[in-house]
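ok so for the tutorial part 2 we go from a plain amino acid sequence to predicted structure tokens. step 1 is just haveing the sequence, like this:
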Amino acid sequence: MKHFFSLLFTCCLTLAINAQAQPKNTILNLDIETVVDGKAVGWTLFGNEKFTAVVDSTIVHGGKYSLSISNDSDVANFRAWNFTLPANYEGKRIKLSGYLKTENVTTGFAGLWMRIDPSIDFDNMQNKGIKGTNDWQKFEITLQMNPQETTQIVLGGLLVGKGKIWIDDLEIHIDRKELKNAKIFEKEKLPADLDTEFAQGSAIADFTPNATQLEHLKTLGLIWGFLKYHHPAIAKGNYNWDFELFRITPKILAAKTATERDMALLEWIKKLGEVKEGKPETFKPDEVKIKPDLDWLTQSGFSAELQNQLLKIKNADRSNKHYYIDFYAGVKNPIFQNENAYDDREYPDAGYRLLSLYRYWNMIQYYFPYKNLIEEDWKNVLQEFIPKAIAAKDKTDYTLTMLELIARIHDTHANIWGGNKILSDFWGKNYTAYKVKFIEEQAVVIDYYDETLAKENPLQKGDVILKVNDKEVTQIVKDLLKRTPASNYPTQLRDIGPKLLRSNDSLVTVTYQRNNEILTHTIKTYPRSKMNFNNAAESTEHSFKWLDQDILYIHNGDLKKNELPEIGKQMQKAKAVIIDDRNYPSDFPIFELSKLLLPQRNLFVKFSNSSLKTPGLFTYFGEGTYVGSNNSDYFKGKVIILVDETTQSSAEYHAMAYRTAPNATVMGSTTAGADGNVSSIKLPGGIMTMISGIGVYYPDGKETQRIGIVPDIVVKPTIEGFNKGKDEVLEKALAFIRKD
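step 2 — the prediction. this is what the tokens look like for a chain of 740 residues:
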């Protein structure tokens, strides 16, 4: 978990290159000058969609265009522009250079980034910590190459926290040669790479399945995924397993009985070749977190011959290499490699829609470390979604079906990411000028996206929204829950709030309560291009300050490692320290700050992951992670850690560490409940999602996923407190300190 932010950010951007030769007519749009319909060709976005990211034609370094990212919200996260190089190249060193301009970068940093996958080398300029307002400057990143192991090279620019960045005129040099003169590295093509029969379509037309076909399709989904991750021939890359699905599906649909179905499956499996029996992995009972869910192999009523064949494959000898799955070095979260997103089609045909369901379902079945927390039989979810996937009538229906499926794993890291246009249009292209947050489970206007536009409309801070376009907010929430992936209900409300007033119309009608009066008004909506999202003033404050004379306050989202020596000096004067973790860390100060808080090394976390040899088996790996060191001069006063639903992932991980301080108290409300480095998943239609890729637990095995960091003292903000300008969680912390 060391360098967690770097790992999380880069895992989110894994988009494997399938072709190793640079395609003809490839546009290397690193100078941002090829723009079509307002979009920079070849460039995509990743990260929090509350950040504004556009192609800019007013502020440029050279030419007509640059890329920009801005954010003035309190969302402690990041957004990045990313570009995937079209090929793998021979060489020892690769250098990315480019020009950056920044404005009011105050709570995080800005930079270029580049990554060679899988886990070969990475830099995002986090250590340079570019902040504040700076005119155009040239920066560069140099990485060590390993062409034989490389699956892709991705690069771009990013903004973490508040402020604005412009990116322009990027260049790539390999061993001092311009990219256009670099030599393509040619990997040996495997049979899976050479199979292109169904590249243009599955040849499976839309159909309405009967009950027998639905049952047979469920069986096919189970067995297709089981073979994908268990059969050695597939692991070697001997088969394009997507296209094998399209070859077998017509035979399964044609089967009138279970006997005919089993015969078709058995014939298909036998063509893969014989397998050798392997030696099973053995673990002590206390090392096992989740056992493989494979009872269905013997409990589904398969023919004896099919069942025996499947059991042979279950017990087959498997190597530590697999065409479709790997693990990041050290962290061990899965890399779902050689998975084609088929992003040339927004509305995949019926076969590809089934593929999307089967691919995702089996990734969760075998490689999601929190499958045990889904709280329903995952096999029943497969059966439920087969008719939904087949019946999806257009691109929007298909995308929403997949979003609903993704929401069923209850993981805040899981959503449809990457600026999906279909989904963005569904939520609404236009925005009102108001920020909405749920307080006491009511939708409250808490701030303005654009104060100038807000003055054109009647809503005010503190107004409680009751209806939107004559629909009760409670009903809107109920309708959106199934399409809001999150680990728990408070986090779902957190993510629904910003969507509540989005619309594709120019006006929305809002009924709201102000004090004791119920009012209804029509308010304007605006496209993002008309909104001044980035209107924050630059701050020069440190990440720490004094509250009264003896209470030191630390904002964990702003904290930088280089501030820790000064913070250590200030702590000697303090009665108590408050660490505000209601944010996302822009640095990774967890180990340095913990040394100031702890008298000795403390084990604060342990992890689980799956394996290639036994898919679906999750075991604890390693000893876990320690923080602190022998330090008789540690801080002996009270340590208060503030959390809420914005405390997510790395922030939750920090809270777990700080909580081990002798006099620590966690105060606030339910956190996001999504911990662990993320793994990206690509689905047909260009859908990109993620999962929490490793299990993260307290040393005693207690869960953090979905539950989050449970406060010792629960304090929830109130509407009354908000209207009075109070930070009730912070006030409670101060009262708790002063009571002694």
